[in-house]
Design brief:
The protein is of the alpha+beta class. It has 17 helices and 22 strands. α2 runs antiparallel to α14 and α3 crosses α10. The chain is globular.
């Protein structure tokens, strides 16, 4: 009997055994067998229980997302979560096209805006890792040659690859030309040459100034080093190797049909925006031209969490060089967006800008992240490297506090799930935040069209003409339909302009960009000033190129032509006072260069029309 028992449990074959086994040993073996079964049962039970618990958490999270999408009036949204090398969750909500009734899914194409920057820095990590002659400290002029110039000699001679990737040049964002779009035929190399005419606001390497133009430059650097376009490099070295087959570039010439429709809110109703506006990113693609899906962005997150390896375990980008992109470069950017105790129940503080990433601490955990926005698309990508987790959230609008709050709240709730923390946002506060912790700014609703009135003594003809700036292109003022004074700037920028005084005007965008000055959350007109001599001859236009700084001077007609044909940089105003004269209420600060140019114009006009 003893040998039969042993045979049944597989420890020996009694027919050929030469061992003698005691009854006590048989008892021990039986006991071990029973204990092993119990352990297996317990392990299975724990796995099952944990799985059920996770499923319950994911169900609660999905309820939270659906509720947020509804109460914040989000047209379309997608989410993906990754943890411990696996895709935990990937799903879409709302619609990619409301008019057609097309649902948003994890495979819907959303534009990710500035999340593109991490692709550019990762691409450069790959390029540099394969060239022993190059480092992050390689100077840009050594790569582009003596024709490369920035606003002054110090920056021109010393700016490096890591400088342009970490926003420490000192050049402001100058966002308005990117909003309206540079001419479609302007090449990347040609726009790089315009950088010398974009003045710095701060001393070199002393202050954080977010600049899409510097990522345009970074992409151009990659092209010069390799001899291939930035788009081809990113597709070949990243998209293809990571099997991101549903990811591409909005300006690749293949059409915009597959991309989710962008929306704004007007008087509480979602209104579709022309997708052609996504082409404003040209030629600055390395700063923000990528579109992707929740499913593909999960692969991108796993690649970073796996230290540069793809799903096959192949090292796509050298780990050391990739890690360099996560290292702090400029301290505490966007500090106004921090959440801190005791005002909020949690803390989320950004420590530094790195290279295409920001480093933060969320509820005690290290966070690598970036946000993205283009037209009305809003995105957030957060990685928690120490717990091998990450999340991606993207939405197609609206362009208001509602859209940004929804994406951030979903990201925070997803983080709490991934980190195993008690959520600090619930179904109520996701709809009211920043309340109850902070008083929210009232959402301004769109207004009826402004009635056009010409309430000044000056004539339309005083202002009509072309105004130019070597860095930021030209502005045309003209009359439309014999009654409206209009302003045209860039590829898509067209506005109806109204006088406030003889020199001060406001403008409301019309046509494709109408929503910039008249949708829910965005109702402020564009303010600008015409520059006049003492005899009321208009010589220039002060126009907001950077919405957070003072206005930039565009010179009119032959004044601009003379500057364009000279070797000197144009005069661009960045002061706290306006540079014009003619009225008692006006501060008169006259640049010597403007005086000389005005005199040239006066002589030109005087002799031409005698």
């Amino acid at each position: 009997m003893d040998f039969v028992v042993l045979e049944k449990i597989g420890f020996l074959n009694w027919k050929c055994s030469k061992y003698v086994v005691s009854a006590m040993e048989i008892f021990c073996l039986r006991k071990f067998h029973h204990m092993l079964i119990l352990v297996i049962i317990q392990v299975v039970f724990v796995i099952y229980t944990e799985g059920e618990y996770l499923n319950d958490q994911l169900k609660e999270f999905e309820q939270f997302v659906k509720h947020t999408v509804k109460c914040r009036n989000i047209p379309g949204l997608a989410v993906s979560l990754v943890k411990d090398g696996d895709v935990l969750f990937s799903r879409g909500y709302g619609f990619s096209d409301i008019a057609k009734g097309t649902k948003a899914t994890e495979h819907t194409h959303f534009c990710i805006g500035s999340l593109t920057k991490a692709f550019t820095s990762t691409l450069l990590a790959d390029i540099l890792s394969k060239d022993n002659n190059l480092t992050w400290n390689t100077r840009i002029r050594d790569l582009l040659g003596p024709s490369f110039e920035l606003s002054d000699k110090l920056r021109t001679d010393h700016v490096t690859i890591q400088d342009i990737l970490s926003h420490r040049i000192g050049t402001p964002s100058n966002f308005h030309p990117l909003l309206v779009g540079f001419p479609g035929n302007l090449s990347r190399a040609e726009l790089v040459k315009k950088l010398q005419y974009m003045p710095a606001q701060s001393e070199f390497r002393t202050k954080f100034h977010y600049s899409n133009y510097m990522y345009l430059l970074a992409g151009h650097v990659a092209e010069v080093i390799t001899g291939e376009s930035w788009e081809k490099l990113v597709a070949d070295r990243l998209f293809n190797r990571l099997s991101m087959r549903s990811t591409g570039f909005v300006d690749n010439g293949l059409g915009l049909g597959s991309i989710a429709v962008p929306y704004v809110s007007k008087l509480g109703e979602l209104v579709a925006i022309d997708k052609e506006l996504l082409l404003t990113v040209t030629p600055s693609g390395p700063a923000g031209s990528i579109y992707s899906t929740a499913s593909d962005m999960a692969k991108w997150m796993l690649f970073h969490l796996k230290h540069g390896k793809n799903h096959h375990g192949t090292q796509v980008v050298d780990e050391k060089w990739l890690q360099d992109t996560y290292q702090s470069k400029m301290p505490h950017p966007f500090k106004e967006r921090d959440l801190t105790k005791p005002k909020y129940p949690v803390s989320d503080v950004t420590l530094s800008y790195d290279m295409g990433w920001m480093s933060s601490v969320y509820r005690g955990y290290r966070k690598l992240w970036h946000s993205g926005g283009i037209v009305t698309f809003i995105s957030q990508l957060w990685l928690f490297p120490d717990v091998n987790a990450g999340l991606f959230v993207t939405a197609s609008g609206p362009l208001s506090s509602q859209g940004s709050a929804a994406v951030k709240n979903i990201a925070a709730r997803a983080s709490d799930l991934l980190l195993g923390l008690e959520p600090w946002l619930n179904l109520s506060t996701t709809c009211t935040s920043p309340a109850p912790w902070e008083e929210p700014s009232p959402e301004q609703l769109a207004k009826p069209e402004v009635t056009y009135t010409w309430n000044i003594s000056r004539r339309y003809s005083d202002f009509i003409g072309i105004y130019g700036n070597m860095g930021f292109g030209s502005i045309t003022v003209y009359v439309e339909n014999e009654k409206n004074l209009m302003l045209k700037y860039g590829r898509f920028g067209k506005m109806k302009i109204l006088p406030v005084s003889d020199d001060d005007f406001i403008g409301y965008y019309v046509d494709k960009l109408w929503f910039v000055t008249n949708c829910d959350g965005n109702i402020n007109p564009i303010s600008f000033t015409f520059v006049s001599r003492s005899d009321n001859v208009v010589t220039g236009l002060l126009f907001p190129i950077d919405f957070h700084l003072n206005k930039t001077l565009f010179l009119k007609g032959s004044m601009y032509d003379s500057k364009r044909n000279s070797s000197h940089q144009p005069y661009i105003l960045y002061t706290s006072t306006a540079c014009y004269s003619g009225h008692a209420s006006t501060t008169r600060v006259i640049s010597l260069e403007v005086i000389v140019l005005s005199l040239c114009l006066y002589i030109d006009v005087h002799f031409r029309f005698r």
